[in-house]
Amino acid sequence: MRTLRKLSSAGDTEVARWDPNCVTAERLAEIEVEFETLQRNGYFAADITDGKDALVTKFNANADILMIPRVQGGVL
Fold first, then answer.
1. What is the C-alpha to C-alpha distance for residues 10 and 30, in angstroms, rounded to an integer?
2. Which of 7, 8, 25, 68 measures 20 to 30 Å from 48, CA to CA?
3. Which are the contacts of 49, defined by CB distance < 8 A and separation ≥ 6?
């Protein structure tokens, strides 16, 4: 099983889970849209498959992906 997860102020949330050996093309397209939407909203993507921990820019159906929000500073 592979996952697309995101970090936010609410914690670590699973966005999608799939088996790369039997997922449909339509479901993969939906997951890729979610990935791209998060990127457009300022999230960075990291391939965390087996401790790889590499930043990525394209969706990979064979990877576990963690979406990390952009860190922003400001005045309290």
1. 23
2. 25
3. 2, 62, 63, 64
Q: Which residues pair with 20 in a beta bridge?
A: none
Q: Partners of 12 in the beta sheet?
A: 7
Sign of the dihedral through C-alpha 68, 72, 73, 76: negative
β-bridge mates for residue 6, sequence order: 13, 67
Per residue in 11-29, pLDDT (tens digit) is 999 999 999 999 999 999 9
Q: Which residues contact 55 (CB under 8 A, 6 or more apart)?
A: 44, 45, 46, 47
Helix (H/G/I), strand (E/B), else coil: 28? helix
**Beta-ladder partners of 65:** 4, 47
Task: Indicate the average pLDDT of the chain.
Answer: 94
